[in-house]
Design brief:
The complex is a heterodimer. Chain A is mainly alpha-helical. Helix content of chain A is 82%, strand content 0%. Chain A has one domain: Orthogonal Bundle (MetI-like fold). The longest helix of chain A has 39 residues. In chain B, α2 crosses α5. Classes of the chains: A mainly alpha, B mainly alpha. Chain A: Keywords: Amino-acid transport, Cell membrane, Membrane, Transmembrane, Transmembrane helix, Transport.
């Protein structure tokens, strides 16, 4: 018990309870950043997936650059680039907006690869059949390729959504008061680092453990469909 | 931004590589026994391992870094920022490598086990001569992808003051009153560092595949 005592540093239940409203607000901020980044990032990923396959060179290279930087640079560096870097280019964003911009970019870059893999997985015969039926390029994409390709991509996209939620913890670096920042503040104020960080961990565990089992189950079912 | 600033950032590269290499080493070594325990036929052990793996993966890396550096570091044993970061990323790498190894093991057809038993190979020999070579081939590409991901995650160590690439990038942005260029340079460094890993993985995979095809 000595070890536990020195980790808990005499924290009481009353202390933990007094932190909960702050943690809850941080949790809501994390969820908001996640939702906004997914809502912007996944459509962006879709456009980038089409962009990297475009026949127009400028469009293709621009898409490729956005994808490779968004995937290749650490999310933390993207956050700092947007938050600390853009002001020197004359564009100051709030911490929340900067977080959404950076994480959407990151999300767009990763999901473009997931979506591209999904679209590529549609059998070539489907495209040939669309040509044979005289569908226009747009109709082929809209009615034939997308419904099948996106269905393949869904489990991977859901898995990535969990990573996006975890990634919001990086917003600590730009002083957005999300869950980890709250824990850090409590730690630095009262020296209750371990208890505060442990509570923050419980918030993540409560969301991510059920979510990842759900995604695993959906992946398994999607696989079962493919095996049949 | 001056040349001096650029050099200052470049000095972070060895530390980024050391963080990544150290964490990957811890993960690659611990990942194997974790995988074996997770695949244990003793149910309580298997369930416990699945729960532990799920829990470790559920918390974001920055939280593990803080838990080890601030949480344990202030109450229990004092860890240097570098050691705390390697330990945190090592723990995360271990469970992820265990999943990658497991993918490798699952991919080996049951006939290989049966054939190895039929040949009366010892347990050691089954693992060393039959399983490991086949597992490596399957596990190599995802491991390389994981190393690259780990290197990007290692930027998080900058939050506890490890003077690697991201930390120095921020320092330079504060020194030079510029934001765009230093962080762009740092981002480019990470991309440049991941290219040889990707290339090495592709080459190794091709060589290993050629060996099987023969």
């Amino acid at each position: 018990m000595d070890i536990l005592d020195s980790l808990l540093m005499g924290v009481t239940w009353a202390d933990v309870q007094s932190w909960l409203p702050g943690f809850w607000n941080g949790f809501i901020i994390s969820l908001e950043v996640t939702a906004a980044s997914l809502a912007l990032g996944i459509p962006m990923g879709f456009l980038l997936a089409l962009g990297v396959q475009s026949r127009r060179k400028v469009l293709r290279l621009a898409s490729l650059a956005l994808v490779e930087i968004g995937r290749g640079a650490p999310a933390l560096v993207l956050l700092q680039l947007v938050y600390f870097g853009l002001p020197s280019a004359g564009l100051s964003l709030s911490a929340f907006l900067a977080a959404v911009v950076a994480i959407s970019w990151n999300t767009g870059a990763y999901t473009s690869e997931i979506i591209r893999a999904g679209l590529d997985a549609v059998p070539a015969g489907q495209r040939e059949a669309s040509h044979a039926l005289g569908l226009s390029a747009l109709d082929e994409l809209r009615f034939v390729i997308l419904p099948q390709g996106l269905r393949i991509a869904v489990p991977a996209l859901m898995g990535f959504a969990i990573l996006v939620f975890q990634g919001t913890s990086l917003c600590f670096a730009i002083a957005l008061p999300e869950i980890v920042s709250r824990a850090y503040d409590i730690g630095s104020m009262y020296f209750y680092y371990f208890p505060a960080l442990a509570v923050a961990g419980l918030f993540f565990a409560a969301v991510c453990i059920p979510a990842s089992f759900l995604v695993g189950w959906i992946e398994h079912r999607a696989g079962a469909y493919a095996r049949r | 931004m001056t040349w001096g600033h650029l050099v200052h950032i470049a000095y972070g590269i060895p530390l980024t590589l050391a963080l990544t290499g150290g964490a990957f080493f811890v993960g690659a070594v611990l990942g194997f026994p974790i995988m074996l325990l997770r695949e244990s036929s003793f149910m309580p052990l298997k369930v416990a391992m699945i729960a532990i793996i799920a829990f470790i993966r559920a918390l974001p890396p920055i939280l593990w870094v803080f838990l080890l550096y601030f949480g344990i570091g202030t109450g229990l044993i004092n860890l240097s920022p570098f050691v705390a970061a390697v330990a945190a990323f090592g723990i995360i790498a271990a469970v992820n490598m265990a999943e990658i190894y497991r993918g490798g093991m699952v991919s080996i057809s049951a006939g290989q086990w049966e054939a190895a038993h039929a040949l009366n190979l010892s347990r050691l020999s089954i693992w060393r001569d039959v399983m490991a070579p086949q597992m490596v081939r399957v596990a190599l590409p995802p491991s390389a992808t994981y190393v690259i991901g780990l290197m990007k995650d290692s930027a998080i160590a900058s939050t506890i003051g490890v003077a690697e690439l991201a930390y120095r990038g921020k320092q330079v942005s504060q020194m030079s009153f510029e934001g765009l260029l230093p962080f762009t340079v740092v981002g480019a460094c990470y991309i440049a560092l991941s290219l040889p890993v990707a290339w090495l993985s592709r080459t190794a995979e091709r060589k290993l595949r050629a060996k099987v095809a023969r």
